[in-house]
Amino acid sequence: MSGPNTDYDPVEVTPLKAEQVDAMREAALAAIADATDLDGLKQVRLDHAGDRSPIALANREIGALPPQARKDAGQRIGKARGAINQSLAARQAVLEAEHEERMLAEEGVDVSLPTTRSRRGGRHPLTLQSELIADLFVAMGYEVAEGPVVEAEWLNFDALNLGRDHPARTMQDTFWTEPAENHVVLRTQTSPVQARTMLTRKPPIYVVCPGRVFRTDEYDATHSPMFHQVEGLVVDEGITMAHLKGTLDHFASQLFGDGITTRFRPSYFPFTEPSAEVDVKCFVCRGIDPESCRTCRGEGWIEWGGCGVVNPRVLIACGVDPDVYSGFAFGMGIDRSFMFRHNLEDLRPLFEGDVRFSAAFGSEI
Amino acid sequence: MKAPLSWILDHVDVPAGTTTDEITDRLTLTGLKLEAIESAGRDITGPLVIGRVLTMEPEPQKNGKTINWCTVDVGDANGTGEPQGIVCGAHNFKPGDLVATVLPGGVLPGSHGSGPVEIGARKTYGHLSAGMICSAQELGLGDDHDGIIVLPADAGEPGQDVRPVLGLDEETIEFEINPDRAYALSIRGIAREVLVSVEGASNFRDPAVRDTPAANADGHSVVVDDAEGCPVFVARRVTGFDPAAPTPDFMVQRITAAGMRPISLAVDITNYVMLETGRPIHGYDADKLTGAIVVRRARDGERLTTLDGTDRTLDAGDLVVTDDSGIIGLGGVMGGETTEMSGTTTSVLVESAHWDAVSMFRTGRRHKITSEAGKRNERGVDPTICEAAADRVVALLVEHGGGQADPGVTVVGTPPAMPVIDVPGDLAARVSGMPITEEQSIECLRAVGCDVDGSGTLSVTPPPWRPDLTDAQDFSEEVIRLVGYDRVPSVLPTPPSGRGLTRAQQLRRRVGRTLAGDGFVEVVTFPFVGAADLDALGLPADDARRDVLRLSNPLSAEAGSMTTTLLPGLLRAAGKNVGHGNTDVAIFETGTVTLPRHSGPAAILPVDRRPTDEEFAALDAALPAQPLHLAVVASGEATSGGWWGDARPVTWADAVEAVRSVSAALGLEVSVSSADRAPWHPGRCAELSVDGAVIGHAGEVHPTVCQAFGLPKRAVAAEVDLDLLLERAVHLRQAPTFSSYPVAKEDVALVVDTSVPAADVEAALREGAGELLESIRLFDVYTGDQVGEGKKSLAYALRFRALDRTLKEGEAAAARDAAVALAAERTGAVQRA
Ligand SMILES: [Zn+2]
After folding, report:
1. Domain span at residue B757?
2. Are B309 and B406 contained in the same domain?
3. CATH no. for residue A311?
């Protein structure tokens, strides 16, 4: 007898009436719009879209409708729920954005606070100066040669035409090592590296030799028992003083600025003949009105180093045929170059190890 | 060499109007470098004039002094022509005398370091004193303050500038003289340089060209036993000389200007002639000589008291002058005390001898004598002017000392001949890169005094005052300097393609940059060390680092050797920083240390040929080993405290990490084991190895050592042999492979005895875990009640991953268990529950 309740009266299922569903939707949308924060919205979601919300309860009633009415009711409820969920999502996005904005505002810091926590390191300016000079010559095609600082007397003197009784030996006050008959010195110049280079390579030779050298000078503002030199040596066919001048002019302009050239004055070094003192044009006043210039002290030129054409005697002692090859050599103080390039009047800070000095130059000069 | 300009110009003419600057500029460009131009009156400005004393009234003062109130005629110099009223404290003058008067507005140099003094009109002793009558001292002309300067009666008219009268306007030029220009240690040589250098200079008057009397047998008897050491010996004699005769003013002024001290007429004359000709002269008190003079080499151990009062033991290489009494002088270097001229000398024997330069150099060095005579003799003097110089001395002694020249003239020996040298006619052009013709070369060589013959290859005889000109190339310098160094063109040579920096050079830069990036500051210290430094490091007596290379002539005995370790210098530098208030310090240094090999002498090889490869290798073998070391020292805070949190103090681990950081930059991994080595804390010292080779040590510095170097406790240090690191540096790094599959993480905590090194535990875990292990990290070390006495807990985070697949369930755990099992077996580790 029993069968589908086909004659169920839909009028009796009140919540599924169109007006009722519309009211539920409107109530939900109003509550969503009223939610001012994410917590409030959460509650609204429970109240109006949760399992126990009116619209959810109404949805359950659909089954009680006669089949012909279910489709309508289902569509009605489905549309209303869609509208509510869409509104919830939109409101959620708005409130989340507001929340994040508020949070970021609250998280603001004073970015002017100190940030330094660790020490800054730095390399020694003389190391940097040496490397800079080496790089200038490497760019010209030279290589960087090196040798020991505790050196054989023969290489430091004899091979360089500074014989045992050469008055020039007293020009360079030498540190000798014990026992004296071992003939070992602290090199007084980087020139023994030139001799070593000629003894171990075949021309053409284009090298620079930066390094530490020693003289028995008492330590004061302008003298140090240890200092740094860079020497250059070229041995090739047809090398002349003009090539020496060209090279030093180029070196000077690279190190001190465009247009800074050099000047030669006759001088004497046993390992070169002819020999010259080389002055570099003052890069501060450029020789124009030098009277008040502190860098060159009114000269317009700064004494920079020594140079010359390699003495054939040196070539012979080092196994280079002077009938085929000629060469030039030059040498200057790295410390001295650094001092006038960077306006340092007393050299002692270079060797005192005060971190404030090195650190001031960082890792590049 | 200091040369009064007027003296130079006595011997050469320059065109009228040539300034001193023009002369010195030219000389500098041709090789006599200007050091300074001095003049006695340089610091005097304003009116300094001749005054004639008109009246002087002595006025006794209450303080016992008597002053003179003077009126002085200064012509128109005061602008009025009226006599000038001046108070003067001196009494050595009288009305009518001419005096040096400085008027108000004048500035005098001042004395005793007072600085310049401006003269004004001032009230003193009841008068308005308008100026000052000057003493020699007040004008900077010496120490004579006994009275004012009274000028010669013919000095000039009142009101004229007094500077020329007193030689205050005389300029003295100081030159730097290089060893190859010894001839310029004389007015003669400088005047000759003016002749060849200064445009338009002419009329060179050689002070060494004189008519000299011929040698005869009547002179003092001289025997030269060693003609090589003393090729020429000239002796002349002056008798009846007045020892009290004053040295003439011009001579005093010139000698003083040249930097020598006037002593007595006879000595001053020998010095004057030396300055003028370059030839050192020695004067003996002839009455103190006994018998013939003999020149010979000394015998080892003979003694002589030289006239500086020093008793010297002579060497067989020294040349000596003797008479019957024994040795009376160190030939060419310094005379002896016994025959020295004195205030009673009336008879002078003048010695003008040429000495072998090398002997002079050796004797000077051996006896540490530097004298004006020695300086010239060891550099080489013109051997042909001995007679002329002696004759000049005799003439001056006669002229100013009232003596008579003895007719006896002794000349022993003859000057050595100058060599003839072949010089290619085009050499100067080839050397300079300038188009210098052969004719130009010949002209220049003749200008400097050479004889030149031939063409193509020139036969050149240098002048006798140029013993330095021995090689063909020496002559090219003479030519080029006269043509002008300033005319050498500037041409860049074209080197072949270079290979850039060597690998070691690149790596050293990398090491420096790495440490600087890690917060260390590079310093450079001297490599000298002393026993006290090594003691301060706490090195045991048998420590190899005590085997140092000693210097024969250190600057200070406390640092008399080459260091074997960078640490003393670096610790000292760190201590200095702390002393300056920079308590957070982290520094590093790279430098060679010197490790003696005790391998015998480095030969003095010949220089007329290349050494053989064996000879060259032997030279290197004779040198000490000089490995490049790297050391770091740090103290204080590694990270400072602040709003972010607390400071982190430097610990032993920072020292190890510095080396690890450098090693990593070289592609190397450091293994560490504990060690006990000075100067480190015995419980906090790590021995560092790479590829099985010990490269150095790192850790906390021993507290006693910290104290010795002025560092707070817990300073840390590391020192490694950088060469060992650099030679192992990875050259070509291989591209890595890594897995994209998920990672499996396993943590384990292992309890071991505290004596077990964490590195051992980790090694066992690694090995036991096998190839699935990707990484392992020690994230906690715990000691305390929960693990018990003598134990520590090490907590490791292990990450497992396979290259080719996702790990199966349990695979990572199995690998972990295997790792723990091996750690247990190797180190006794027990897994913590
Ligand atoms: Zn300047």
Report:
1. 744-831
2. yes
3. 3.30.930.10
What is d(CA B226, CA B295) in angstroms, rounded to the nearest whole number? Answer: 7
- From CA B739, how far away is CA B742, in angstroms rounded? 8
Which residue of A119, A244, A273 is in closest CB contact with B473? A273
> CA of B612: how far to CAs of A156, A241, B615, in Å?
18, 31, 5
How far apart are the CA of B36 and the centre of ligand 1, in A?
18
User: Has residue A204 been placed in a domain?
Assistant: yes
For residue B788, give the amino acid letter: G
Backbone angles phi, psi at B300, to 5 degrees: -50, 130
Distance in angstroms (rounded) separating the CA atoms of residues B137 and B814: 103
Mean pLDDT, residues B762-766 taken together: 95
The candidate with the shortest Cα–Cα distance to A233, out of A262, A196, A208, A210, is A208
The enclosing domain of B479 has a CATH number of 3.30.56.10
Supply the pTM of this predicted model.
Answer: 0.85
Tell if the CB–CB gap between B526 and A226 is shorter than 8 Å. yes
Can the peptide bond before residue B464 be classed as cis, meaning omega within 30 degrees of 0? Answer: no
CB contact under 8 A, A152 and B623: yes
> What gap in Å lies between CA B48 and CA B50, rounded to an integer?
7
Note the pLDDT tens digit of each residue in B29-59: 999 999 988 887 777 888 899 999 999 999 8
* Range B598-606 contact pairs with CB under 8 angstroms and sequence separation of 24 or more: B600/A182, B601/A181, B601/A182, B601/A183, B602/A152, B602/A153, B602/A154, B602/A182, B602/A183, B602/A184, B603/A154, B603/A183, B604/A153, B604/A154, B604/A158, B604/A164, B604/A183, B605/A154, B605/A158, B605/A159, B606/A317
Q: Which residues contact A149 (CB under 8 A, 6 or more apart)?
A: A186, A187, A211, A212, A213, A214, B527, B592, B626
**What are B705-744's pLDDT values in tens digits?**
999 999 999 999 999 999 999 999 998 888 988 889 999 9
Residues in chain B within 8 Å Cβ distance of A119: 519-521, 584, 586, 638
pLDDT in tens, B183-205: 999 999 999 999 999 999 999 99
- B249 and B376: one domain? yes
Q: Tell me the pLDDT band of A10, cut-offs 50, 70 and 90.
A: very low
Q: Do A353 and B576 touch (CB under 8 A)?
A: yes
Separation CA B491–CA A128 (nearest Å): 28
| A100/chain B closest Cα distance in angstroms | 25
For the record, the structure tokens of B218 come out as 């009547």
Asked whether the beta carbons of residue A123 and residue B512 sit closer than 8 angstroms, the reply is yes
Q: What is the pLDDT of residues B272-315, one digit of tens each?
A: 999 999 999 999 999 999 999 999 999 999 999 998 999 999 99
Residue-number span of the structural domain to which A38 is assigned? 14-106
**Shortest CA gap B76–chain A (Å):** 36
**Are A317 and B607 in contact (CB < 8 Å)?**
yes
- Asked if pLDDT for residue B572 goes beyond 90, the answer is yes
Q: Which of A236, A232, A235 is nearest to A304 (CA)?
A: A232
pLDDT tens-digit map of B109-166: 876 666 788 888 888 888 888 899 988 888 877 666 678 888 888 888 999 998 888 8
| B369 at interface of A, judged by CB pairs closer than 8 A | no
Residue B538 lies in a domain: yes
The Cα-based distances of B815 to B741, B759, B822 in angstroms read 17, 19, 11
Say if the Cβ atoms of A153 and B586 lie within 8 Å: no
User: Is residue B334, in this structure, part of any structural domain at all?
Assistant: yes
By the CB < 8 Å criterion, does B180 face chain A? Answer: yes
| Residues 21-60 of chain B whose Cβ lies under 8 A from any Cβ of chain A | 28-31, 33
Partners of A319 on chain B (C-beta within 8 Å) are: 609-611
CATH of the domain at B805: 3.30.70.380
Report whether the peptide linkage leading into residue B58 is cis, meaning its omega lies within 30 degrees of zero.
no
